[in-house]
Amino acid sequence: MARETSQDGKKPKKETKKNAWTRFIATFLTWILLNLIWMYFSHAVAVNEVNEHDRVIDSEYVLNVPNMFGLDRETPVDMSCDFRPKNSTVPIVTVRIHHEELFWDNSEDLSLIWEGNSSDDCRVDQLTLPPGEHRFHTTVIMDGEEVTNPSSYISAEMELGMHLWEPFRMEGFVVANLLGLFLGLADRVIRQIIRKRRESRVRNLPLHKRRQKEEWEQLAHSMAGGDPVDVDDLVGFQLQDENESAEMQRRRMRERFAAQAAEADGDIDEFVDDDAVDQDDELGKGTTEGLTGKVERDRNIRTVGDLWRQLSGSDSKKKRK
């Protein structure tokens, strides 16, 4: 079909450009998706529950900050807390939260990060903690002395949220973009390798086999809903009688391909389909009714697929009769 393919047997440029544009959009969306995924995970928080209301207060909580990838990056830590009097009969007490950092040489660094009454709002700025072990002490002071059982005076809720991936946010975006670029290039390289292998196999085929392959590909493209075809595109595919069976159609197709193969090999003898000789005796003598005369245009036929569906429909009606 001369209009649907170029001289070298390749698909139309229009379809090639469409496929290239589709692949570009898919690659671009993949690149956007990788950046969105990293943006979400870079803000992910690992929550550590220290205390909860109506439970015994953990006055000494140990938080282990991991050393991500061995780079000794400091990790941002959010601290949320809420203190309430145990009931209306207990006095207002003072609550203190200390942060203690333990170093490799067993030295300690104790600092006060919040102090207030048991009825005050607890607000703590974001902490930036290096990798290692950190302890958070919660103490209750009444009349200047530390209470040994703070759960008798207050109810506490405290959480520590570690932003483990935030120190690597910029590096993550670089990796995501490099990965998106790699996927785009890898897709193109793989397609080129597959195309070269396919072309190599086609070049090794005999000439008549190559012609048959091209025609079958063109026919499959049209039946799948390709571009509309002209009457000239059907040259070589004779219009069949509406009463002709599917077996007769297949026989005509086999004769046509065998004739092409014989022409390519230099054999000028007429091809005879041995598989259909016995069937001709059973079907009787054929006629040329419906194959002669002026060709009338059928507006329902726009592609080879439409013609194939009409032929198949006629054949199924004939079988039901």
Description:
This protein is an alpha+beta fold. The chain has helices spanning 13-42, 169-203, 207-223, 246-265, 277-283, 304-320, and strands spanning 46-51, 60-65, 75-85, 94-102, 108-117, 127-129, 132-142, 145-146, 154-162. Strands 2, 4, 5, 7 and 8 form a 5-stranded antiparallel beta sheet that branches. Helix 1 packs antiparallel against helix 2 and helix 3 (207-223) crosses helix 6 (304-320). Mean pLDDT is 78; it is low at 1-11, 233-240 and 315-321.
Count every beta strand, where a strand is a DSSP E run of 2 or more residues: 9
Q: List low-pLDDT spans.
A: 1-11, 233-240, 315-321
Distance between the termini: 36 Å
Shape: elongated
Q: How is the biggest beta sheet arranged? A: 5 strands, antiparallel
Order of helices and strands: HEEEEEEEEEHHHHH
Structural class: alpha+beta
How large is the count of helical segments? 6
Query: Averaged pLDDT, please?
Result: 78
Strand coverage percent: 15-25%
Helix content: 25-40%
The rounded Rg comes to 40 Å
